[in-house]
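lol forgot to send this yesterday, sorry. struct tokens for the thing we talked abt
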């Protein structure tokens, strides 16, 4: 008769079925409009968030550079701040965020796998301890029988 009764944490079973959280899991899916808006936002972000789009925006911005140069220093500064930086850096920042999100997803997956491995090991340790409990109880019973004999 074992003196220890293991009660598994309810999160363990839920965790087995869940898997790691990804950034796509965070999209609003509460209504049809929300799903459409989320899908549209992801499509637009995927398109704008490419280096090819950044190159296209750079070409577009450079088209207006000669006019800015003709108007002088204030126009050039305005062109840099309002045209070039906003158009080109927007796409480059999105590319960087996409790369970072992919890395975060990879880290989440690795952390999940690590936690799953630790849980598996802990369950094996629990089984080992239960086997030891049975052996110790058997030894104690043998000792008690020897004393009474």
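and heres what i got for the seq, position by position
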């Amino acid at each position: 008769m074992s003196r220890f009764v293991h009660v598994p944490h309810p999160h363990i079973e839920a965790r087995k079925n869940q898997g790691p959280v990804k950034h796509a899991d965070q999209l609003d899916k509460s209504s049809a409009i929300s799903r459409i808006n989320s899908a549209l936002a992801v499509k637009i972000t995927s398109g704008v968030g490419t280096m090819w789009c950044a190159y296209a925006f750079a070409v577009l911005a450079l088209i207006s550079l000669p006019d800015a140069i003709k108007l002088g220093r204030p126009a050039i500064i305005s062109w840099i701040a309002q045209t070039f930086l906003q158009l080109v850096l927007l796409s480059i920042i999105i590319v960087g965020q996409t790369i970072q999100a992919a890395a975060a997803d990879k880290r989440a997956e690795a952390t999940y796998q690590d936690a799953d491995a630790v849980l598996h090991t802990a369950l094996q340790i629990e089984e080992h301890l239960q086997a030891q409990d049975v052996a110790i109880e058997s030894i104690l019973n043998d000792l008690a029988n020897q004393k009474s004999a």
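The mean pLDDT is 86. anyway ping me if u want another try
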